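Sample pair:
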Amino acid sequence: MIRLDPATAGSPPIALPTVPAWALTHGGALSDADAAFQAGAALASLDTLARAQASWAGAWRQRLALRCAAASMRLAGRAEDEAALRDAWQLCPAGTDPGPAGAVFGAWRQLALQPPAASADRLEMILDQLGLHWDCAALADLCTEIEKLAGLQRPAPFAAAAIAAHVVTVRPDCELFAWWLADLALAQKLRWPRPVPLLMAQAFGPAFRAEAGGRRKKLGEQNFERAVCVALAHAAAEAGELSRRAEKLLAIAPKLRAKGAGDVVFLLLNEDAVSGSLTTKNLSRFAARRLFERLQQLDVVRELSGRPTFRLFGL
């Protein structure tokens, strides 16, 4: 049975460290040194959170996984946005095929859930979820390359950029996989217990736009490492609202009288979205609906689906 950890419920969550304003300034074209300095400030703020394992870190990582999946759909030329991806995942019965879009979302969810280790078997499974294919022997060589890059005395953003560039050099058709591996390599280099999906969500943002126009910068192009550094600064500055709602949720959690409320709080802290018709051993569908309505009134959760039936809620 799912229960809210009493220690978690009784103590305030870890506040999300903020990126200093000077690390987000854009005074003309950045040099490599300026970009690396920005990335260092951003990663310093993220490092505290990634290591501390805040009570709401699961929801934070899964929300970022959703953003990366939505950007992946755009890269693949598909139309699914965040709402459609949520539906693909939430409406899929356990153990059944979530479809191509849901499978891509699942690959990013797995990145956020598992330690940043690379094995040929794991990467083969991720490629399958992404709708891609790679020779098994070549995957073993790729794992060796990832280990080699992790061991080099290079800053973490440069290691992430290097593995992404390596993948598209070997397989230009696997750019999506290259972005996935970049976040895994970043977590390996920083020795985070779990990766944080960051870079794919920034792939269409200003950090990866060519200086002289609107064209998106390709992986491995000139100044790509600089763009990765700038993208990390942007990514680190985008998570404050979820932290605020988590803090309010944990503050009121001990006061919730509904039987099974702990189940709901636990899921909200660990998932991007929770079904409004959730049922557990301790919670009926009717009780869940009333509890979500109460939490919404308290400005603790948001209704994410925008429809009267099969409603989804999250921090």
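The chain has 13 helices and three strands.
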